[in-house]
């Protein structure tokens, strides 16, 4: 398919409807582009202004003397068709339409009109009814959201604009790093499948994360997603309840469908599902930082029996039930813990465990061929400093040449919070409850299974070809 | 039953096994009692020391010249029986046995022995295998946990010591306020039912919160709990999976049983269940701060469609499905929002909503007889300051004379975090995701249903009595 670089990596942007009123969206977008240090060219367009925020303002896009990649349309819905027409004449390749007042309020006609105009010029539309596009690698806040998200490798695509803005702020509190935040709105033209298909090739994206209220073309979504094995896709589907699906329909005008239908479709599409907003963040973080889990053997290392039991429950709930490790692994683990510890799974290195014991146990586990992934659980104690523990875990995962995933749960106070922050920055996802660390690991396993299934299908395909070849002789 | 004041509100404490070694538990407990500013008398006991931390040290409890309410036993398991014998002779009423090495490692004999000795002196035992007792109202950290928890009205009883210590620290991060933290360990004598029964009369406890791995006497637990209507009880049961139940058994030596058996027992006992560690904190907080929800009509007020849909899904999942509000309420709500808002449930006052709109909508909702509880959802936007919103919500709930519960979800950045902190301190529980605010409300409804059922049963009992009376005439 065609390249969406002009939309998501534009070299120049026109803001059609740019404004000098600080309370307007047309002002916010211009200001946000400047504040985010966008390196491309910015062309404000407003028939009544000559200058906005020290930038020369054009009375029409047609007056802009240079090429324009992306048009951000901040005029009201009713004016949008004529403005898009002008963008087409100018040769703009992509427009992001911020205004609401289209299919979500019954104005399908207006939406069809702008799509028709765009098509006639070979132009793509993002929206309408969106917040805009935020990109850390591009230093581009082409939206009316307040600032770029905490930097990282997740590209999140959201059907809800308000949620996108709120989550944007929250990424800084939770330190969940994003590459792009894309508001997809009514999906009049570009839909989830198109945007996913584009970001599969983006080097700054390690995980594609979706907030979905409804998908319009299910077949296309499945066909595009299932071919993407190189990057995990994770989705939170809202509107899964009877009444929730009605609410979703009135919100973005899309058919919500039952939760079961979507779960089945996600499975077919090789998309990992998330179950709550926290879970979407948790799983996206793990999938953006850690390799997939390539086998069923999860080992848990803990200093507390209670959290071990909670993690064991969660492992069963999320489809990665624990098994006992082989004897030789048990023996090796036994050597680094006191007699009253347990080398069963969860491995309980006891409340006496120091950061060093954790480091040793984690290295032993990662090096053993039986182990496919490790979840480390830690309860703050007086005999261990969580900051030292973070250093030990980082060191053990950093020399993890076998490329096995690690997720972590820390429960504790302010010192623990600092230890979490440090370790997360080093690329190890840390959660504040054992079941959340396990859910994150389960998403890595789910992605691992999709990869294995994908390879299988690919292999079968080759087999068939071979049969054919042999049949010819 | 007898009064456990000497155990939980002691006027004097002997630490048997007090030590001058800063790494020992016997040292920690003495230091923690001093640091927490405990107002009662502290008597360290150690045959080999004359002074510990500037306190006179006794060579035996029998040497202490004054009455002792509580003995904290910090000697190893093997020495415990003889020490408990001395405590009995001294007339101590309660002992908290910290040492492990009893039934959890197969030494049921040793555990039976100390129970036998205690009984012969009319003494009660907490533990063994515990961390101790923390009390904010008593300013008493009679444990080897680092400090008292964030102050509040939850009394939490935990079967896991390591978890208790870690959660103790976490209360300060999450600002979830505790009255008591009680480590219950192996429950050789005092069990959940005994401790619950005691705290039902404690004025500083508004909610009793349990971390349960296994209950030994199910009948007693149900009988005691179901009679307590004046205070909510909430429980997280770990070890609900096949393997988790085995792990729990080896951890505290109690029979874990299946998750379903426990769910049924909790229902019979009128105990609200929590489903994860986060959920235990979330639900305990709501139950300690807000009144029960006395009817099925939940109204949601939101400024974002997306979070509204997520909350609608959660309401169905947690058994409080949304219904449309009556016309007159819709009309009143319509007056405070723009035309494109929605007065259906969830009530969407739109992304344009100011703090003031929220305040008005919340007051209208709380005053309307149809409404039994309100969940407020907020996505941070540029047109509303979350700190002002917190003030509006506080004012509306503060003049809520109808005594209806309110739970809140805020999604946003650092300013939102400060707004959450402020509102939580004022007694309104705030969560960082819509489904969590709904789960908290569902726990208030569950408690409300138990109260209604309890009253029904009580009323039926009266009816029977009346029949009897009439029959006599």
Describe it:
The structure is a homodimer of 473-residue chains. The first copy, chain A, folds into two domains: 5-244 and 251-286, NAD(P)-binding Rossmann-like Domain (Rossmann fold), CATH 3.40.50; 292-453, 3-Layer(aba) Sandwich (Rossmann fold). Chain A has helices at 5-8, 25-35, 80-90, 108-120, 161-174, 192-199, 218-226, 242-252, 259-269, 277-289, 305-317, 327-334, 355-367, 386-398, 414-425, 434-471, and strands at 12-16, 41-45, 51-52, 55-56, 70-73, 94-97, 124-126, 132-135, 140-143, 151-158, 178-183, 207-212, 233-237, 272-274, 298-302, 347-348, 373-379, 406-411, 430-431. The first copy, chain A, has 473 residues and is α/β, with parallel strands linked by helices. In chain A, strand 6, helix 4 and strand 7 (124-126) form a beta-alpha-beta unit. Chain A starts with a helix and ends with a helix. In chain A, strands 9-8-11-10-12-13-14 form a seven-stranded mixed β-sheet, with helices on both faces. In chain A, strands 2-1-5-6-7 form a five-stranded parallel β-sheet, sandwiched between helices. Chain A has a five-stranded parallel β-sheet with strand order 16-15-17-18-19, sandwiched between helices.
